Amino acid sequence: MNLGPHATFILAAYGAAAMALLVLVLWVWIDYRVQRRALETLEAQGVTRRSARGAEAAR
Amino acid sequence: MPLIDLANPHRFLALARWLVPVFALLAAALLIAGFALGFRAPPDYQQGETVRIMYLHVPAAWLALGIYVMLAIAALGTLVWRHPLADVAAKAAAPIGAVFCLICLVTGALWGRPMWGAYWVWDARLTSMLVLFLLYLGILALWRAIEDPGTAGRAAAVLALVGVVNVPIVRFSVDWWNTLHQPAAVFRLDGPSIHPSILWPLLICALGFLSLFIALHVAAMRNEILRRRVRTLRLLAAAEAR
Lengths: 59, 242
Prior knowledge:
The structure holds 2 protein chains of 2 kinds.
Chain A: H1 7-44, H2 50-58
Chain B: H1 9-40, H2 54-81, H3 86-116, H4 124-145, H5 149-163, H6 166-176, H7 196-241
Helix pairs in contact in B: 1-7, 2-3, 2-5, 2-7, 3-4, 3-5, 3-7, 4-5, 4-6
């Protein structure tokens, strides 16, 4: 496809947008993994919320 | 499911499990279709091939403005109704809004250079959009600077409400002042002034970016709920260790 004399500007715009969105998606995904891992570590250490303990005791 | 049920983080996390992949797939399908149609459309009679930048620039601008309005509504939720997910929603939306605002500014500069001969001019539309980006950065800085999520949420909510005055300025700047930026071409009282061959791909791309925002926002809200859970457990562990 011929993008004419301003192809550099068009491709740069798409490249910059793709880069920004990729960073955003990766940041959200990595943050999810970090929080999940931290939560699992705490739960493995036996740290639970009081509400969770109350629910267990009521059973 | 009644809307109030979403205030329960457990129910929200269950909902997020299917909302994120559904909207991510929808976004991918719509963006592929939109860009494919957009690049097959004939070039604009004035702007030539550079009109292809519009499929990024315009949806990013709409989203940057829309997300800021959402931040202001969430701010009301935090300050007035004290909704448990309001500041979670605001904190999750702010960085996404900032990125869409940045995309709008960068693609606008890259479109402006071949059309106007300059990457940047201090015209009312560009300047008010830059102010919007600075407002996003201010909100993000407040969240980072204040450790307690409740206090940070209220401070960010106040800034979001003060800054919402900039939204109509961005929207109507091209009508109120003599600007280099072109006036509104889609949302007009007399209907869109863009040819359907360009308008339809633009609307499909806008829906694609909106779906991407929903997927990212729900995922970021889920992260924030988990982060607060981790914080609570760490505080609990520290208190019990004493």
